[in-house]
Amino acid sequence: MNATWQLPDTERGWVTDGGLETDLLFHHGVDLPDFAAFPLLDDGAGRRLLAAYYRAYAEVAARAGAGLLLETPTWRASTDWGARLGYDAGATARVNRDAVAFLRALADEVGDAVGDVLVGGMVGPRGDGYTAGDLDADAYADYHCHQLGALAEAGADLATAYTLTTVAEAVGVVRAGRDAGLPTAVSFTVETDGRLPDGTRLADAVTALDAATDAGAVHLLVNCAHPDHVRPGLDGGAWQDRLVGLRVNSSRLTHAELDEAEELDEGDLDDLAARTRALAADLDCVRVVGGCCGTDARHVAAMWDGWSPVTSLP
């Protein structure tokens, strides 16, 4: 992996998408066993639905004059989760490659309207995204090398592992990305107190990850938490400069409450936009802003309306 790789500078930052799975489930009535969206790539109607989903965010980026980070619908497309859905290792690698090709074609389509487009491969946790996993970084590295290798082979510009709950898995992901030769970012999730699900302070998680990998993650993010839940994790330390992205939940519910919810909590768009902007203003290096559970293109459009995390728009 190129340790010097950095997210390219743009005048307005990078728009990324929202809560793909909750959007599909609650707004489109799509059945997603194990919360997996990647099987839609193997169906013509599913591909059309995904294309429409991503085009909506391209429109947000075009209006904002920002770059567009397209991230593959492969949060669950690793071998353990793939096997549960009938995808063996070969089929799982193939669908990851297909996802990159799918978004690369879409990037070409929207390139005239959006000047800067990156295609990122999305990786998810080996276990549940709301429950702390084990502490074997080497085992995580072995596990994630399969998916990251497929994404690298397909020519993804970078990969990001989202909703990680432990430093150990983050270390494993970074090691696997390095072995695959793919620039890899890490996104931790936090509970309502700003700590990882295993109780680790966000500051300690970032510091420990960088120490264990020689700052091998190209950048860091926080996702799947309301802005009010991220804020208690901030202490003004230099480690905050490693945080480049925010993908926030619409709801203030805890992860446990969200897991049991039968109705979508879309939150208040204007309030969420204001709180996301305020949080980004306290994180000097944030460049990527999008949504997570409960959000859709409306939420991300509200965040970016007349605003950028990089500059104050007139």
What descriptive keywords fit this protein?
eight-stranded parallel beta barrel; alpha/beta; 314 residues; 42% helix; TIM Barrel
Describe this protein's structure:
The chain has 314 residues and is α/β, with parallel strands linked by helices. It has one domain: Homocysteine-binding-like domain (TIM Barrel, Alpha-Beta Barrel), CATH 3.20.20. The chain has eleven helices and eight strands. The protein has an eight-stranded parallel barrel with strand order 1-2-3-4-5-6-7-8, surrounded by five helices. Helix 7 links the parallel strand 5 and strand 6. Helix 2 packs parallel to helix 11, helix 6 packs parallel to helix 7 and helix 10 packs across helix 11. The longest helix has 22 residues. The model has no long low-confidence stretch (mean pLDDT 95).
Short structural description:
This protein has helices spanning 20-28, 44-64, 79-84, 89-110, 137-153, 167-180, 202-213, 227-230, 255-260, 269-281, 297-304; strands at residues 14-15, 67-71, 117-123, 158-164, 184-188, 220-223, 243-248, 288-291.
Low-confidence stretches: none
- At CATH level 2, the architecture is Alpha-Beta Barrel
Structural Rg = 18 Å
| CATH fold title | TIM Barrel
Shape by Cα distribution: globular
Largest sheet: 8 strands, parallel, barrel
Domain Hcy-binding: 2-307
Cofactor: Zn(2+)
Organism: Nocardioides zeicaulis
Keywords: Metal-binding, Methyltransferase, Transferase, Zinc
